[in-house]
Structures are given as structure tokens and as C-alpha cells.
């Protein structure tokens, strides 16, 4: 579980880009070697497991600049429950919703003809 306070996804991407640009300018990283995997190493969650489920509390239907890079292919769960009231019952609901999903990681669902 990751709880990010005083965090912004845009900031995280920008600071990673800044680090990579500095390394490139210093000759420590060749621009042709910059790819998704390289970029990911400079983000705040580098080394952490991929985010499988993002739970958004409070009834808002947006991600609010949260883990913008890291939630690619994550499942999203929205609940009206406010964070202070998000308890084990609410977590169980989110997990149940998650386990009922068909995760395709960007692939199209095969359609019967």
C-alpha cells in the first residue's frame, strides 16, 4: 500500500526528466539509451511493484495528479467514502471489485463473431 502525501505526479515526472537531462549533459547517459525503463528508474516509486489498483476516495471521479506515470494499466476504483472513514469493509469492496475485472494491460478484448 502506498499513501502519498505532498506528492504530485507532474512534479515526479518533471524531476525525473531533470535528473536524466543532467546525466545526459554530463555525458553519463546517452540520449539513445533513454526509454520507458530508464525513465522509470528516476521516479519516486522506482523499485516498487507496479500499481495494480488505485482507490480514489471522497466521490471525486478524477485521479488528481496522483501517480500519473505509475498508474498506467492500473485498475481504478472510485468510492464516495471519505478517507477517514475508509475501513476494512470498504477495502474489501474495492478488492472484490478488482478481482472481478478482466485485466488486459492495454490489449483489446477478443470479441466473438
What is the topological layout?
Layout: H1 9-25, H2 36-40, E1 53-56, E2 75-78, H3 88-99
Parallel strand pairs: 1-2
Overview of the molecule:
By secondary structure, the chain is mainly alpha-helical. It has helices at 9-25, 36-40, 88-99, and strands spanning 53-56, 75-78. It has a single domain, classed as Undecaprenyl pyrophosphate synthetase. It has a two-stranded parallel sheet. The chain has three helices and two strands, in the order ααββα.
The fraction of residues assigned to DSSP E strands is: 5-15%
Main beta-sheet strand count, sense and barrel state: 2 strands, parallel
CATH topology: Undecaprenyl pyrophosphate synthetase
- CATH homologous superfamily (4th level) name: Decaprenyl diphosphate synthase-like
Weakly predicted, low-confidence segments: none
**Name of the CATH class:** Alpha Beta
Distance linking N and C termini:
41 Å
- Principal-axes geometry comes out as globular
Count of all domains: 1
Amino acid at each position: 500500500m502506498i499513501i502519498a502525501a505532498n506528492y504530485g505526479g507532474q512534479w515526479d515526472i518533471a524531476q525525473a526528466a531533470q535528473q536524466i537531462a543532467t546525466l545526459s549533459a554530463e555525458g553519463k547517459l546517452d540520449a539513445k539509451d533513454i526509454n520507458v525503463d530508464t525513465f522509470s528508474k528516476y521516479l519516486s516509486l522506482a523499485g516498487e511493484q507496479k500499481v495494480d489498483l488505485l482507490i480514489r476516495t471522497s466521490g471525486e471521479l478524477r485521479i488528481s495528479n496522483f501517480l500519473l506515470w505509475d498508474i498506467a494499466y492500473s485498475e481504478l476504483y472510485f468510492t464516495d467514502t471519505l478517507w477517514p472513514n475508509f475501513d476494512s469493509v470498504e477495502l474489501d469492496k474495492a478488492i472484490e471489485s478488482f478481482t472481478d475485472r478482466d485485466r488486459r494491460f492495454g490489449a483489446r478484448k477478443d470479441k466473438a463473431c
